[in-house]
Design brief:
single chain; 484 residues; 19 helices; globular; disordered C terminus
Length: 484
């Protein structure tokens, strides 16, 4: 039976990065000792697992807009209607010229574009909600049956269901499939990080976070490269689902070649009747971090985690759909590449920059830079001018990536040791949930904005202003601890 402390560990994505792994004095090292080769196999497997998970993040950006258009078009709800013909007739009368049939088709295409934008937002929500639930479910599998088994199940989930997604026939079917795929993506993180950090207990948290964060961004970048080589269009998008299914080979190899965490094996062999000094501590209740003594820190921590998540998925991600609707499927792939390539370096350097400049100061300055970059992109560039559009996308990609190297370093430091893991995990996962809800609302307002991505981006990117204010609200004198 799982203890409370073990159950709560499954909801925290950075739990094994937050404190050093203390060797169990009762561990039989002759039984559970890892070889150096085994350690390298673990880090390679964890890197590849999160690399392929990153590919699914890129697939969401690159192909979901085209998929939505194709599946909606198949419903025959967006054929030319009498209202479209009436609107076209009115345009011809006002202009004194024009092709009635072409204008009527343009009206139908406009309705299809707005509807596909709404579904694009829903697929992003599926990514965020699915990731949060997957971290819970597959994290529990990893705690109970082993890190390797949890990682195997997560990889097989996101690759196997991606193959199923190749055959979907409606937007609703794709939504369900992508939700399950993203459960696997979310489940890869806690198991991969736990396995790697337990095998490399002497490695620093910023370094491990950088390795994992970089893997995901490389995966996103490779999806952009694939989309550049074979353009993802309304008529040709299903092949991307097969690319997402390819990691099933890794999922089948992991249980055969990857050694299990020695710490997990040691704890299992001790049995429930024996406890390590870590387990002998009082169980931690999540409610505790919402009590008066920690409430302010927890709420601001949730805000600080929400800002980069929403900035990435609820604001700048609309640039991909903007490029697609502007009529350039090739530019759409370039936008994914321009965001992810600088993001590789940004996420890897995030922890180092925070240590050099200071936690508070780096977050504050990075929020303002991201705000300025996003506003410039949505005010002064557009897919019609692709060079400047890609330049601002790259600038925003680098600085928004810094946040994802900053978060695993900073969030754990906000809480005392006893509730550090729970506090950091709750902040990050609440950020996911809030982002998903906000993206869902934004997707519902697409018709109100008349599919104007420039206006949507200007408004949604103001989230970075909340980040700059939020870091200033962080109470000082809190144990655990901002070391500026």
């Amino acid at each position: 039976m799982l203890r409370k402390q073990q159950v709560f560990s499954i909801i925290r994505p950075f739990n094994e990065l937050e404190r050093p792994i203390v060797p169990d004095p009762n561990e039989n090292k002759s039984i559970h000792k890892l070889t150096q080769t085994g350690r390298y196999i673990i880090i390679i497997a964890a890197f590849l697992g999160w690399f392929f998970a990153g590919m699914h993040l890129g697939i969401t950006s690159l192909s979901m807009g085209s998929a939505a258009k194709d599946l909606l078009r198949g419903t025959e709800q967006f054929e030319v209607t009498a209202d479209d013909q009436a609107a076209a007739q009115k345009q011809v009368q006002e202009a004194g010229e024009g092709d009635l049939q072409v204008l009527a088709q343009a009206e139908a295409d406009k309705r299809l574009g707005a509807a596909s934008s709404k579904w694009f937002g829903y697929y992003v929500c599926a990514l965020l909600f699915g990731g949060a639930l997957g971290g819970l479910m597959f994290g529990r599998i990893g705690d109970r049956f082993g890190r390797v088994k949890g990682m195997t199940a997560a990889i097989c989930c996101y690759s196997g269901v991606s193959f199923v997604a190749y055959f979907v026939q409606s937007p609703e079917q794709l939504l369900v499939a992508r939700f399950v795929v993203c459960m696997g993506v979310g489940g890869m993180w806690p198991n991969g990080v736990a396995l790697m950090s337990e095998a490399w207990a002497s490695a620093s948290r910023p370094l491990l976070a950088g390795v994992i964060g970089t893997a995901a961004n490389i995966g996103i970048f490779m999806v952009g490269v694939a989309g550049k080589l074979r353009v993802v269009t309304v008529d040709d998008w299903r092949w991307v689902m097969l690319m997402g299914a390819a990691p099933i080979v890794l999922g089948l190899l992991v249980p055969l070649i990857v050694p299990e965490s020695p710490r997990w094996l040691a704890q299992r062999s001790m049995g429930n009747s024996e406890k390590t000094s870590e387990e002998a501590k009082p169980d931690v209740n999540t409610v505790e971090i919402f009590r008066s003594g920690m409430l302010a820190v927890t709420l601001v921590g949730i805000l600080l985690a929400t800002v980069p998540l929403f900035g990435s998925w609820g604001s700048s991600n609309w640039a991909v759909k903007w490029a697609e609707d502007a009529g350039s499927d090739d530019l759409k792939a370039q936008v994914v590449m321009a965001r992810s390539l600088p993001g590789i370096f940004g996420s890897f350097m995030g922890g180092w920059i925070a240590s050099l400049v200071g936690r508070r100061r780096s977050y504050f300055l990075n929020s303002l830079i991201c705000l300025g970059s996003a506003q410039c992109m949505f005010w002064f560039s557009s897919p019609a001018e692709p060079v400047m559009f890609l330049v601002w996308t790259a600038v925003l990609g680098f600085f928004s990536g810094i946040f994802f190297g900053w978060l695993p370093l900073f969030l754990p430091e906000l809480f005392v040791t006893r509730v550090r893991s729970v506090g950091a995990g709750v902040c990050f996962n609440f950020g996911r949930i809030i982002t998903a809800i906000t993206v869902f609302v934004t997707a519902g307002l697409i018709a109100y904005f008349d599919n104007d991505f420039r206006q949507i981006g200007r408004i949604t990117s103001l989230i970075y202003l909340f980040g700059a204010v939020g870091i200033l609200l962080m109470p000082k004198g809190v144990e655990g601890k901002i070391k500026d």
